[in-house]
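Bumping my old thread because nobody answered last time. Still need a sequence for this structure:
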């Protein structure tokens, strides 16, 4: 759900190679999933559905890890799906519109006049992230209260205290605040709680037995915790689900997610007119979904990230193909995993990664010259470099630590976020490269 430096990008751009025949090499896909599990590069679950029928399902890794106690993930394991929740929320909004209880032109001041520009912000603006409401998860202090329960009044006050980032409909800017507010509007209009309305209008209607609004994680319900890898899998902090609400509080399984998006596109949940509006892109985003390209093909869907959970849901209309992948722990970038999955499905040239050990091996004392606090004149962010035995650890201001992998002399990477760091100990400098940007940091004395 949250967006910040050192996380994977919101949109997944897949554009590689040439698509040939569509023979599906299941053993090759098994090989990819096997090595991801064996090398501790990912944990999670994948479902692929064709014409509404599951043709591949696989779970790897664990849903719970505590010392020597481990619960293997299964196809019944539930994951926090983060911003894929927005597709469910948008669907329910259009259901209310079709019921005549709401309009795209309805302004927010009818329900929450305390929000900035409430009289100018429409339901449409909230749906396609053109409201100007500031994204509360971008605020540095968010990390200090994300694990604490919040009431609706609390969240509205948090959203209302920030000035608008821009005037409504002026431009696109992804904001979780938009969908939190949409969830509260659903409750106002339907006179039901968001979890109950979700159950009545979607999950019970199409038989999603493993999809609901989450609370505190409960392994007895087959719910998964999420993990970061620092020499071993370590449990990540757990966001209180009262905070993301309609923007990111749903838990589900890949199998349920495929049923949901297939039902949406087969018009079992909304009319063709509503679906068309949801699919209409403005500045790259529709209403609760966006397009995911893969070479000459294009899917509709969404992805999500909350705590250390990541997820993707994609539906290719021309192929009647659905891919749903949820992970509760990843080292190898999710984008690269999805490229592999789709390349194998579409029978494109693809080599299974080997994940051989890095070409450079360092002793713990070799890392001492890199340790310290680094700052930059280019961005207001400090990075602290520490070590854990022979692993270098990086932690940016107000963010979680992550391990760096040595690739060459003075060069390290963190693949999940596409980060490269190159140190120059003699000059007390470190160069950070991420997303096409290069930032020079200097070690503080």
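Sorry it took so long. Here it is:
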């Amino acid at each position: 759900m949250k967006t910040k430096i050192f996380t994977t990008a919101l949109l997944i751009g897949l554009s590689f190679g040439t698509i040939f025949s569509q023979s599906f090499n299941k053993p090759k896909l098994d090989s990819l999933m096997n090595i991801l599990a064996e090398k501790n590069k990912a944990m999670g679950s994948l479902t692929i559905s064709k014409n509404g029928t599951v043709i591949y399902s696989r779970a790897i890794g664990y849903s719970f890890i505590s010392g020597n106690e481990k619960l293997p993930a299964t196809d019944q394991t539930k994951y926090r799906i983060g911003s894929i929740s927005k597709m469910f929320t948008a669907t329910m909004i259009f259901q209310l519109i079709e019921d005549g209880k709401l309009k795209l032109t309805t302004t927010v001041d009818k329900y929450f006049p305390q929000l900035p520009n409430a009289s100018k912000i429409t339901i449409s603006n909230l749906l396609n992230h053109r409201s100007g409401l500031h994204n509360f998860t971008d605020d540095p202090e968010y990390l200090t209260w994300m694990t604490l329960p919040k009431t609706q009044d609390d969240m509205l006050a948090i959203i209302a205290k920030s000035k608008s980032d821009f005037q409504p409909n002026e431009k696109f800017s992804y904001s979780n605040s938009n969908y939190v507010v949409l969830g509260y509007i659903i409750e106002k209009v339907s006179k039901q709680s968001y979890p109950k309305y979700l159950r009545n209008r979607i999950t019970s209607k199409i038989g999603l037995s493993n999809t609901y609004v989450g609370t505190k994680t409960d392994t007895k319900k087959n719910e998964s915790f999420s993990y970061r890898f620092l020499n071993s899998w370590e449990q990540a902090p757990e966001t209180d689900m009262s905070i993301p609400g309609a923007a990111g509080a749903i838990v589900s399984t890949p199998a349920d997610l495929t049923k949901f998006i297939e039902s949406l596109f087969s018009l079992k949940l909304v009319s063709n007119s509503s679906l068309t509006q949801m699919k209409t892109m403005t500045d790259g985003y529709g209403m609760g979904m966006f397009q995911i390209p893969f070479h000459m093909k294009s899917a509709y869907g969404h992805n999500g990230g909350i705590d250390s959970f990541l997820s993707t849901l994609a539906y290719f209309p021309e192929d009647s193909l659905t891919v749903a992948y949820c992970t509760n722990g990843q080292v190898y970038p999710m984008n690269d995993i999805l490229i592999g999955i789709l390349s194998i499905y579409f029978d494109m040239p693809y080599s299974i990664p080997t994940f051989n050990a890095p070409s450079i091996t360092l002793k713990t004392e070799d890392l001492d010259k890199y340790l310290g606090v680094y700052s930059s004149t280019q961005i207001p962010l400090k990075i602290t470099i520490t070590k854990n035995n022979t692993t270098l650890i990086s932690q940016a201001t107000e963010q979680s630590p992550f391990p760096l992998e040595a690739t060459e002399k003075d060069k390290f990477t963190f693949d999940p976020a596409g980060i490269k760091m190159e140190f120059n100990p003699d000059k007390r400098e470190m160069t950070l490269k991420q997303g096409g940007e290069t930032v020079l940091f200097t070690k503080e004395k």
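The chain has two domains: 1-356, 364-443. Let me know if any region looks off to you.
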